[in-house]
Amino acid sequence: MLKKLFMMLCLCFLWQAPAQAKGLLVFNTGDEMFKVGPFPQEVLSQYEDLKSLNAGYKCSHFGILWGDVKTWDCTLVGMTDAEPDTFYELPDDVISTLSKNPEYQENKMQRNFWNHYGIFIMILGVIALIIIGRKAKD
Description:
It is a single chain. With 138 residues, the protein is of the alpha+beta class. It is built from four helices and four strands. It has helices spanning 2-14, 41-46, 92-100, 113-137; strands at residues 27-38, 54-64, 67-79, 87-88. Strands 1-2-3-4 form a four-stranded antiparallel β-sheet. Strand 2 (54-64) and strand 3 form a beta hairpin. It is elongated, with a radius of gyration of 21 Å. It starts with a helix and ends with a helix.
């Protein structure tokens, strides 16, 4: 019984169209914005128009159920809290200044728990289902 249920679940996952949110599995792709924090004072002294913005990254990503599988091509941008999907290109000297600062590296992006670790939780869930299915068979 459990084996049939598991096979039906697997078939549902295989029949999903990658660009649509139908069924049990949702694929998401495109650009995603991640806030890092406010610009440092040394940058704001040169560019006063950045005071209303935060530093962040615009990245390409591929995910399943909003848990990122792969994130790549991240570039530093300016962004606001009011419009989280809107970004502003930064001058090259600001990008080079922020790239040298350890507080503005890609590993400082503010990602939520599910976005960052969701794919690992899903993999562990599938493994747990397989183990439970095998134990129920014995």
